[in-house]
Amino acid sequence: MAAKTNGAPPLAVSSPGLAPLVVSPLAVSLGDPAGVGPELFAQAWADRHDAGLAPFFAVGGVEVLKAAARSRGIDLPVVRIRAPQEALGLFAEALPVLGDEDATVTFGRPDPSGAALALHSLTVATRLARSGEAAAIVTGPIAKSRLSEIGFAQPGQTEFLADECGVAHGDAVMMLAGPNLRTVPLTVHVALSQVPGLVTRDLIERKARIVARALARDFGLSPARIAITGLNPHAGEDGRMGREEIGVIAPAIDALVAEGLAVTGPHPADALFAAHERHKFDVALCMYHDQALVPIKTLDFDAGVNVTLGLPIVRTSPDHGTAFGIAGKNLASAGATIAALRMAGECAGRRLLQENAA
Q: Looking at residue 21, what is its pLDDT?
């Protein structure tokens, strides 16, 4: 568990060496095999005992994983499996890999064959999570431009998962979580100039409800304390720096409080993430991408996890990209990948406990 920081309690909920309760293994999709994903999953397996990870298996890429492990000096035993359940009995001694699909890649140089493996791995892992054969899915980082060249139509993996699960894109909510902070961006990959027009009462209320339900179900936080930021500097300062707080954000907060949600705000974003403030909320719902991601990447860069809320399956991912520039050079930190695997196991375990209690 991460150490306390400036008096604020860490948000991690598991201890190294204590594996989460799961009855099915986690499914790992490799991401782009020319990036750092495969080597970090190999490192995570090597650190599985100290990290307290639930059993997981990779979908495809036996040779990719072996090469990635060699690049880090890891002795990685790999065993092919034909069904996910086999991973439970084999994980202690070898990394289970499902299927024969593979690619010959050069680290740092993505190509169509690697993209095809990444898409296959993502597709199969998602299907197995949906069927319950996998307890959760942990996705490696992809190169969206390469995937688009082979017919990948969605903007990213989150939208792909939403489509596969029959969930509207807007209801698949991205949360960034680390030992010290959780944040959710209300608007994500849009130009900053578009944000004011996209910030509506309906969007704030809908995402806050999804966040509250997900934190109760997957993180055991009920009621989850949600701090909602303002859009403008100093949260508008009573309308002198913008009126979105008065006309849009505050009314949404009032409506959510009337429903019984533990919501506060609008908070000035420049002060909300100070150490003496972070213990007052469980998650910050922020108005735009950088307002949410700058603090989490500053505080928890090597342990940040991207969690998709609002899906019928558990999905996590390390909060970093393919890092082609350092792939295969034993420079990338496995911290975020290990954190994503641990969090997936914890969330899947909580769902299982709730199902058994129902």
A: 62
Residue 19 pLDDT greater than 90, yes or no: no
At 213, list the tokens.
């339900």
Q: Are 291 and 269 contacting, i.e. CB atoms less than 8 angstroms apart?
A: yes
The range of the structural domain enclosing residue 193 comes to 179-303
- Find the distance separating the first CA and the last CA of the chain, reported in whole Å: 30
Predicted local distance difference test score (pLDDT) of residue 67 = 97
Q: What is the count of structural domains for the chain?
A: 2
Residue 8: both structure tokens together = 């604020």
- Whether 243 and 327 map to the same domain: the answer is no
User: Does residue 163 sit in the same domain as residue 184?
Assistant: no
Q: pLDDT tens, 155-201?
A: 899 999 999 999 999 999 999 999 999 999 999 989 999 999 999 99
Q: Are 30 and 151 in the same domain?
A: yes
Based on the number of CB atoms within 10 Å of its own CB, is 277 exposed (0-12), middle (13-18) or buried (19 or more)? middle
Does the reported pTM lie above 0.85?
A: yes
Shared-domain flag, residues 159 and 263:
no
